[in-house]
Amino acid sequence: xxxxxxxxxxKVTEKGKYVELRCDPISGHTALYWYRQxxxxxxxxxxxxxxxGAADDSGLPNDRFFAVRPEGSVSTLKxxxxxxxxxxxxxxASSLLAQNEQFFGPGTRLTVL
Amino acid sequence: GENVEQHPSTLSVQEGxxxxxxxxxxxxxxxxxxxxxxxxxxxxxxxIDIRSNVGEKKxxxxxxxxxxxxKHFSLHITETQPEDSAVYFCAAxxxxxxxxxxxxxxxxxxxxx
Lengths: 113, 113
Description:
- With 113 residues, chain A is mostly beta strands.
- Chain A has strands spanning 5-7, 10-13, 19-24, 31-37, 44-50, 53-56, 65-68, 75-79, 88-95, 103-104, 108-112.
- In chain A, strand 9 and strand 10 (103-104) form a beta hairpin.
- Chain B is 0% helix and 56% strand.
- The interface between A and B is medium-sized, with 27 and 25 residues.
């Protein structure tokens, strides 16, 4: 079956621009997570959705970051006024229920020039 | 915030030898501890996980041990093969966020023939 997919695979933008990153979880998975991974580091938690609601957004670094999951399936991570420090691979993961294995997508590599 | 420490950062073993990677965590509410393998440019893949009600779990050449009192857990790979070469991440669930994960910084394992 189809795994977690993310689009785009690569995104290059200029400092100050707005970007949207999309995640399509595995069908039927209720829990969805966003992480970001910098070079040589482990994934860093950003936000967790249970259904349509953000159950925990404590990992979002500041108010330039926002994420939605309006129908409890696809999620979009939105970054306003991008900064060079936002450059990283943004990973999405989903699980059937919150306590189950998290399956990761291939990530979106964001480069802010 | 809560964090996960992982050691060593790099590990080189000869084919057929064993490899051990150790992690400690600080969140006493953590109750789920997965290990992920990430090959260069690829997504993290779960290789084994353990929950807090179990002290040890084994799956063929891979085993994980957990000491909740000491807040540490370890990954053991026996009879290593060159295809085991990758970066391995330990993670611990965040006690106040369902199963969102705090990751270690990773161990780069190289298995030489």
